[in-house]
User: Which sequence fits this backbone?
């Protein structure tokens, strides 16, 4: 079982997240916190695997709690869950060592996928947040970086390049599939193949390569 801590200063939000996660056979919500200070203490006391942290909370905000957990309980994987998708929050969360960034308007299935990915030691970034990261990091690129990216993309097939361009737009697998008339499962297979060919660890790295190469721009 994946032991999860849910942190949000709004009780209704916590209850909703608990209800969604509790419907999964492999996820157990073992604790709830209403602020970052409580979250840090409970994460350590309850042997939590994954901590969901809202950003804007009293006493201690989620990003500060994230930094504290990375120092005092590095075994806990942290997912930042928020309605605030501004790029500075996304970048700070990733810089501080979060396992992912999930927007609160994400579908229930995405929430469960993110928790499972984090527990497995993988990075998870909401498709909606991917675009913020890409836009922030892909600006001001050099000609050398663009040429390097284009060379790396030469190993992709035409269809793989189509899928990669949609990753650069921050689309989910389902939305990308609708755009190019593929099933979600097929898109997922393409994404895995693209990441392997490009030697990228996650969708964000692949999306940045697409932007650097001018793919889909």
Assistant:
């Amino acid at each position: 079982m994946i032991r999860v801590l849910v942190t949000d200063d709004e009780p209704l939000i916590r209850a909703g997240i608990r209800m969604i996660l509790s419907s999964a056979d492999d996820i157990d919500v073992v604790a709830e916190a209403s602020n970052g200070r409580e979250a840090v203490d409970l994460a350590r006391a309850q042997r939590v695997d994954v901590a969901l942290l809202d950003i804007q909370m009293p006493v201690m905000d989620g990003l500060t709690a994230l930094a504290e957990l990375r120092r005092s309980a590095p075994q806990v994987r942290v997912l930042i869950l928020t309605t605030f998708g501004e790029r500075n929050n996304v970048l700070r969360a990733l810089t501080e060592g979060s396992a992912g960034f999930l927007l609160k308007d994400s579908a229930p299935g995405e929430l469960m996928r993110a928790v499972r990915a984090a527990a497995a030691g993988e990075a998870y970034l909401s498709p909606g947040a991917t675009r913020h990261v890409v836009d922030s990091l892909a600006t001001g690129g050099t000609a050398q970086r663009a040429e390097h990216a284009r060379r790396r993309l030469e190993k992709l097939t035409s269809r793989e390049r189509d899928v990669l361009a949609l990753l650069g737009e921050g689309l989910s697998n389902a939305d990308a599939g609708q755009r190019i008339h593929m099933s979600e499962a097929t898109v997922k297979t393409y994404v895995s193949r693209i990441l392997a060919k490009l030697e990228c660890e996650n969708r964000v790295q692949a999306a940045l390569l697409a932007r650097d190469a001018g793919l889909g721009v």
